[in-house]
Design brief:
The protein is α+β, with helices and mostly antiparallel strands. The chain has a single domain, classed as 7,8-Dihydro-6-hydroxymethylpterin-pyrophosphokinase HPPK (Alpha-Beta Plaits, 2-Layer Sandwich), CATH 3.30.70. It has four helices and eight strands. Strands 1, 2, 3, 4, 5 and 8 form a six-stranded antiparallel β-sheet that branches. Helix 3 runs antiparallel to helix 4. The two termini are 17 Å apart. The structure holds ligand X6L and magnesium ion (2 copies).
Length: 167
Amino acid sequence: MILLGLGSNLGDREINIKKAIYKLHQHSEISVDNVSSLYETKPVGMLEQPHFLNAVISVQTKLTPYDLLQVCLNTECQLGRIRDRRWGPRTIDIDILIYHNLVIQDEVLQLPHPRLHERCFVLIPMQEVINDMPIHQGLTPRQLLQKLNDSSDVAFYKRLEMEFIQS
Ligand code: X6L
Ligand code: MG
Ligand code: MG
């Protein structure tokens, strides 16, 4: 299982996320399997910025995690992401959350995503694309969410209709 997290809080957030998924789908070495609904989420980290739309998708690929990361960063660039302030607003952010059971801790890439288990904006959409699979210390997203005090910052927004995905 390979899981990617997507987030947007600049411009047309819904179109940005759809375009990102479509570009990943169009990549010859990547197939998009499952797409969560969109959720509208309160910003975490830097609070004075617009609300996000977040989603989680599962993909299949034989690309290494480093090559997959490069595809994610290229896609962010193509969608006009400008990195200025750390944690600042962005047209699109594409994070590798989980790459099978791989653990990596280096300068470029950390897998599983280090703050995965404490972010409702990741765990709630993730519940839709995996079937109660443990993702952190043997706990499923549902179990991890029970330990977080507040899911109220994450609100269902809409289902994503993507013509190219059988769901
Ligand atoms: C203390 C200090 C506690 C920093 C938390 C958490 C920083 C998350 C950055 C933190 C801290 C982040 C998204 C977002 C960001 C997103 C929503 C980040 C990086 N990305 N908020 N904030 N959705 N809702 O995709 O995740 S910036
Ligand atoms: Mg992120
Ligand atoms: Mg990122």
